[in-house]
Amino acid sequence: MRCAAVLTAAGSGTRLGHALPKALVPLAGTPLVVRAAHGLAASGVVDGVVVTCPGDHLDQVRGLFPGGRVPGTEVPVEVVTGGPTRQASVAAGLAALDDVAPGAGLVLVHDAARCLAGPGLVRRVVAALEDGSRAVVPGVPVADTVKRVLALPDGGEVVVETPDRAALRAVQTPQGFTRDLLERAHRAAADRAGDERTAVSDDAGLVELLGEQVHVVPGEDAALKITTPADLDRAERLLDRS
Ligand code: CTP
Ligand code: MG
């Protein structure tokens, strides 16, 4: 089945604190969004990529994909304006899927911020979809002890519970879905807009709210999310080692 990817790159990168939007920040000379697109294209299982970017950087981002292709490959790229939230950006990307991979039945959603996610990880997610899963996330074991907390009126917080760490996974991207399921999840999310209780930070979370099963495949260290300057340093060290 054909597979298209939405590559989210429309965030501002507040926590990174760079003059450029995060996805345009270079890592060893290459912008994060280009590295991330390359990881998708190099997998050989992605037929097209829709990149979402800040509206005031459309031309700049288009310039990173000469001829509307992922550099060094034949994989088509369409660059569209993202939205005010990551969820809105993914929705904008979904609306443009047919421009890069008409009729694609599988969709990956990937963060430019996870720019070193490798082709092997991409193939693992798509293979799970091809095997019949309708929603797939890469996950890695959690090293920290994680507590659920409750905010107190005085501004402090208290621990409510300590989930069994062995049953926890930190999830990464690319996350993979059958297209009809992901589109349904986003439509349902748009209908719930403004409902604080259902605030979710990833696409699999929207699918879970539909009561659908989400499968986990092994993630990888390289798929770390670059959020702070320290993460950028870590990514540079990972590159040096590879
Ligand atoms: N993203 C997006 N549209 C938004 C917000 C985020 O496409 N309105 C993308 C980012 O570009 C990034 C991914 O979603 O690739 C994950 O978001 P995050 O790591 O939070 O990036 P930023 O929002 O850019 O960073 P910050 O929260 O520090 O401002
Ligand atoms: Mg953000």
UniProtKB/TrEMBL annotation:
The record marks 15, 22 as: Transition state stabilizer. InterPro entries: IspD, IspD/TarI, IspD/TarI_cytidylyltransf_bact, ISPD_synthase_CS, Nucleotide-diphossugar_trans. The record marks 165, 225 as: Positions MEP for the nucleophilic attack. It holds the Pfam family IspD. The keyword Transferase applies. It catalyses: 2-C-methyl-D-erythritol 4-phosphate + CTP + H(+) = 4-CDP-2-C-methyl-D-erythritol + diphosphate. Its EC number is 2.7.7.60. Pathway: Isoprenoid biosynthesis; isopentenyl diphosphate biosynthesis via DXP pathway; isopentenyl diphosphate from 1-deoxy-D-xylulose 5-phosphate: step 2/6. GO terms for molecular function: 2-C-methyl-D-erythritol 4-phosphate cytidylyltransferase activity. It is an enzyme of class 2 (transferase). HAMAP family: IspD. Belongs to the IspD/TarI cytidylyltransferase family. IspD subfamily. This is 2-C-methyl-D-erythritol 4-phosphate cytidylyltransferase. It comes from Georgenia wutianyii. The lineage of its organism: Bacteria, Bacillati, Actinomycetota, Actinomycetes, Micrococcales.
